[in-house]
Each structure stands twice: as C-alpha cells, then as structure tokens.
C-alpha cells in the first residue's frame, strides 16, 4: 500500500468518525428541578420560589411521582414581581390516584412559585414525591 493510499484511508476513517459523532443527539434536560414532598399541605400552601433563566425550551411543570391521599390537587403557577402584583399563570389539576404531570409551557425569565388552589376529597394533602421542573 502506498503512502497516499494510507493517508486516504486515515482521512476517510476520520471523516466517518466525525459524521457519527455529529449525529449523536444530546438529551434535553430541564434547567432546574425541585425534588420535594408535601406534608399536610392546605389550600394556599406555597412552594419555595425559584429563578428561571429561560435558557432552555423546557415547559414548567409540576409532577406527582407518587400517589397522594386526596382525589386531586389543583396547582397555580405564579410569576413573582417586585414592582407590581404577581401574575397568575393558570391552574392545573393533578389526580392523586396515579402519578402524572401538568405543564404551563415555556416561561420567560423570572421568579416563580406554585400555590395549592384546591384539594378534592380532603382538607389537606400529602405527596411523598413532588417535583417541579423549569
């Protein structure tokens, strides 16, 4: 094999490797996740606040990764402002009979928190594995 044939094979192998490397997809991860629980949360209970940089395309969501002890829970997403009243971004209901998630879509940069707005079937709710993704 001549030198030019060997160089040609090396270049071809390198190019093929680059094509394979470029085609590997990187999974999309949420900018942030809060892994928590709720113990005897009542209507009006507020989660801790978080800052969303809006540096990704992830939809803000709440999830029950475990069943809870009521029929369902309604959560409201709040966009916090220091210079005007907070913005209420909608209420989403999650069943307690199974695990699941509810989504508010991609949110702009800012501070947020979630409030329990309703509990069906009980005066309070407990969720052993409660998560917020943003």
How would you summarize this macromolecular structure in one to three sentences?
The protein has one helix at residues 3-22, and strands at residues 33-41, 50-52, 60-64, 72-80, 87-95, 100-105, 110-120, 125-133. It is mostly beta strands and 134 residues long. It has a single domain, classed as Jelly Rolls (Sandwich).
Can you walk through the features of this model?
The protein is mainly β. It has one domain (33-133): Jelly Rolls (Sandwich). Helix content is 15%, strand content 46%. The chain has one helix at 3-22; strands at residues 33-41, 50-52, 60-64, 72-80, 87-95, 100-105, 110-120, 125-133. It has a four-stranded antiparallel beta sheet, with no helix packed on it. The protein has a four-stranded antiparallel beta sheet with strand order 2-7-4-5, with no helix packed on it. A hairpin with a 6-residue loop joins strand 4 and strand 5. The longest helix has 20 residues, at 3-22. The protein is globular and about 80 Å long. It starts with a helix and ends with a strand. Mean pLDDT is 86; it is low at 10-28.
